[in-house]
Amino acid sequence: MIIVLKPGITEAEETRVLHEIEARGYTPHVMRGVSRVVIGAIGDAQAHQSLETLASWSQVESVTRIQKRYKLVSKEGQKVRSTVKINDHVQIGGRKVQLMAGPCSVENEKQLMTVAEKVKSCGANILRGGAFKPRTSPYEFQGLGEKGLKLLAKAREATGLAIVTECLSEEHAEMVAEYADIIQIGARNAQNFQLLIAAAHTGKPILLKRGPSMLIEEWLLAGEYILSSGNPNLIFCERGIRTFETYTRNTLDLMTIPILRQETHCPIVIDPSQGCGNANLVETLCFGAVAMGADGLLIEVHPDPTRAWSDGAQQVTLEAFEKLTKNLLPFLHAAGRE
Ligand code: PEP
Ligand code: MN
Known about the structure:
Helix content: 25-40%
Radius of gyration: 20 Å
CATH architecture of the largest domain: Alpha-Beta Barrel
Mean pLDDT: 95
Low-confidence stretches: none
Shape: elongated
Largest sheet: 8 strands, parallel, barrel
Oligomer: single chain
CATH topology of the largest domain: TIM Barrel
Distance between the termini: 35 Å
Bound molecules: phosphoenolpyruvate, manganese (II) ion
Number of strands: 14
Strand content: 15-25%
Structural class: alpha/beta
Order of helices and strands: EHEEEEEEHEHEHEHEHEHEHHEH
């Protein structure tokens, strides 16, 4: 059940509702939005006293029964689309399509600063960069670890860009949260539920990639782990799935945009870089993503992709990124976005 409280109620009134939900045998999960508090009450409705009568309480705006397996991420419970606040001037969701751009891996200060300054000048508000890299082979570059996180923090200091970076393991969640503005959960870890819970508990916004062979329902349920851990700041990120097609690295499933907009109130971001594995296709995929309603784009940019320490084939050059952002403008306007 989703219980939406009236705007402006006191803490004591909220506590009364929470106690009543518990007294009726449900576990309340509180999500604090900008203007109101939404409570997800999880429990088997057959085995408990109904919560429907709470609708008549003066503190309560609405009570809705959710039929889907995913509850808190569901559009059934929250009709209004969520915005995720990243810092005082950046949010994901809403009219602006946020550009999140930067190298696949943080390699050194010069590389990172060069990219950071460029993407900022092209309108990006968020810098991406991997410090912990989930590589298919143990012999490939595994990332700079905390040193990479420190470089990201330095780039934030110099440019004001917010930072999105991946957390690979539960034990690093607190450390990554110290440096990051958004914690990225990578495709390979999208169903690592203990990691999802640990990342959610840091309180930082979470960018949850779709696993390469995850069903949309499984992805939404993975997102449910974040919200049910008390963190409402969830952003879904489609990054391509594995299909029979081998021409591209992955098959970027742009259909997930309208589907997620139908199923969840959480924002959705597209990563065309991992999605196709080919720098030449990235710009066109961005056009498609914006036209279909994406709330953000996660794009890999490198000063010299031919020398990149990871994912060289799919990273666009600084010049290509600038061109991309200019060419994107008519698509943004046509879609009624900024
Ligand atoms: C990345 O963003 O560089 C990355 C490793 O992404 P994914 O988890 O989608 O493969
Ligand atoms: Mn990459």
